[in-house]
Design a protein that fits this description.
The protein is an alpha/beta fold. It has 12 helices and 9 strands. The protein is about 45% helix and about 15% strand. A hairpin with a 2-residue loop joins strand 6 (about 210-215) and strand 7.
């Protein structure tokens, strides 16, 4: 997909190009500088100077791990700040790097097995704000026969939104606003097999029939667009589960959620995703983005009446 920034003003374009050059220069620095210095510096700023959304983080952690001590929750909070700092640096570090370098930073050990299972079909890959969520773009390199549709949520800042789109852009990637996901699939599915990449743990807009699940000891609403697409168009669904190896380096495996053939009850696919994500978060809670205001919505009265 061609990159466009025609709607920016002159000064916005100048700001964008300046930031892009800074990111490009930063991306080619060695790990010892990018992570040894800048990740630690960003961590100190977020955790100890800005105390970025600390109240939100601690409230989320207390509700999610009611049996953990305050000391343990504060430890997770500090480590979560470090993970957030690392992901900020990881995102900047993707600016214009080579395919070889991107694959060096994220190993995908079972990608060939997944290729065989998909058999050339389009598929949906679901992940959360867990670990290196931006690094999932490496899929577009390992599966060149299928075009990756990376679904994103537009930022309020036009300059930062355009910068992130440029950082995320790869040869085999289409960046699509979440509101246009299904339309994009319908318009392009006959041209080439596609992989729809969804970060599916965001807080969905309220509507009457939202699916709710017990997630981390709380009633939680989830997007169901991935399930709607999967069942309507018979698309296999995979969950992306990453693990941190060292700063800036990860291993990610894909777990089958739905094969595109099985007859399932409504919300089954979403619940399987929820359980896999929850299992990862419980195992390494510091890798999830606890700064999200994930539980702003009040569940329906009939759910509140049930005991968690």
């Amino acid at each position: 997909m061609a990159y466009k920034n025609n709607e920016l003003t002159l000064w916005q374009k100048i700001s964008l190009e300046t930031l892009w050059l800074i990111c490009r220069g930063f991306a080619i620095l060695p790990d010892c500088i990018r992570h040894g210095i800048f990740t630690n510096l960003t961590y100190v700023i977020l955790c100890y100077i800005l105390r970025y959304r600390r109240k939100v983080m601690m409230d989320n952690l207390r509700r999610s791990f009611p049996d953990s001590s305050e000391q343990e929750l504060k430890r997770i909070c500090r480590k979560s700040y470090y993970n957030l700092a690392e992901q900020i640096i990881n995102t900047i570090s993707q600016a214009g790097i080579s395919d070889k370098e991107m694959l060096h930073r994220l190993e995908l050990p079972n990608i060939e097995q997944i290729r065989q299972e998909m058999g050339g079909r389009s598929a949906i890959f679901m992940m959360g704000h867990y670990g290196p969520w931006e690094a999932g773009l490496a899929v577009s390199i390992k599966l060149p026969e299928q075009r990756l549709t990376a679904v994103y949520h537009q930022l309020s800042s036009s300059v930062l939104d355009e910068l992130l789109k440029r950082i995320r852009q790869r040869e085999n990637v289409d960046l699509v606003d979440m509101k246009r996901t299904i339309r994009h699939f319908i318009d392009n599915r006959d041209k080439q097999a596609m992989i729809i990449g969804l970060i599916a743990d965001q807080n969905p807009p309220r509507r009457a029939n939202l699916p709710w699940f017990k997630f981390l000891h709380q009633w939680t609403a989830f997007f169901d667009g991935g399930e709607v697409m999967a069942t309507k168009y018979k698309l296999p669904v995979y969950y992306f589960s990453p693990r941190r190896v060292r700063a800036g380096h990860y291993v990610g495996v894909f777990k089958l959620i739905y094969d595109g053939v099985e007859v399932v009850e409504p919300n089954t696919i979403i619940e399987r995703y929820v359980r896999m994500l929850e299992e990862d978060i419980v195992a390494f809670p510091e890798l999830w983005m606890w700064t999200h205001r994930r539980w702003k919505k009040t569940p329906p009265p009939e759910l509140l009446a049930q005991k968690i």
